[in-house]
Amino acid sequence: MLTPLHYSTSELSLLEGTTLYHGAIQRREASKLSSERAKDWLVSAMTSASDDQIRLLLTWIGEIDWHSAWLWAEDGYASRSFPPQVAGWPQGDEPILIPGFDALNHRRAEPVTWSFREPALAVFTLRRAYSQGEQVYNNYGAKSNEELCSSYGFVEPDGPDDLLALALRSNADDAAGVFYWPQNQTEPPSALLVRLREHVEPTAETGRVARLLLEVQVMEMLEKMLRQRRKAFRLTQREVEDAVPFKNESDFVRESVLYVIRTYRDAQASMLNKKIQWVQAELDRLLDELEHEGWTP
């Protein structure tokens, strides 16, 4: 399995300095708790059973590596599930498995449709013609490499749907809000700018100069965020560049996982650099406008 749920210690360390690393740690911890709760419940429910098949299952549970089996099942479910609406159930229900729908590989922008048809049909519709012998694809939707890696264990080189995730807290006690800045979007998310403006000390000044000065402070905070993120990212980048596949009794790095991690990180590094360049250019523009207004530091 190639998702971060199944990374070795060394493989996981190669994600340090990225948002995918923190997401992987949280998911692994949650999976461990779910695994333990499920096993405890199952053993408790079957202990008093008299059926021979159930006793055999109970013995089997005690013999296998339960946590590894749970991770395998969880990954299989998460990577092959579909929205409940495809089966006619409410959007808030749990994702579902549909035999057959999950048999196809993913290709971005492949024209397919998932739909529900009364009374009880999940319909997969191909929106283009295929030649004899040509592979038929599914389309998982517009997903960043971070999501593709986390959910499916692969990435798309130069993925057009890639994005940079930025976390910002209103204060130390609040959960961080996460804002997504797509690589093909020049300006930062408007919601992030709104949140940053809330961090600027209010002033009694009004007028164009005051508004420009506010935006300068916002851009300076954004630049600081991005530079701190890049600094943390670079702390482990050399380790990733120097890494080689290996395997010993207690640890390993697989070549396929190393490729996925490098592809993901290369795109993240490129986006960080481009976003910082944009902020610097925006600061220059704002300062030029302030100078035109006659403002001096």
UniProtKB/TrEMBL annotation:
Keywords: Methyltransferase, Transferase. One of its GO terms (biological process) is methylation. InterPro entries: SET_dom_sf, SETD3_SETD6_MTase. GO terms for cellular component: nucleus. It comes from the Eukaryota. It is an enzyme of class 2 (transferase). GO terms for molecular function: protein-lysine N-methyltransferase activity. Its EC number is 2.1.1.-. This is Ribosomal N-lysine methyltransferase set10.
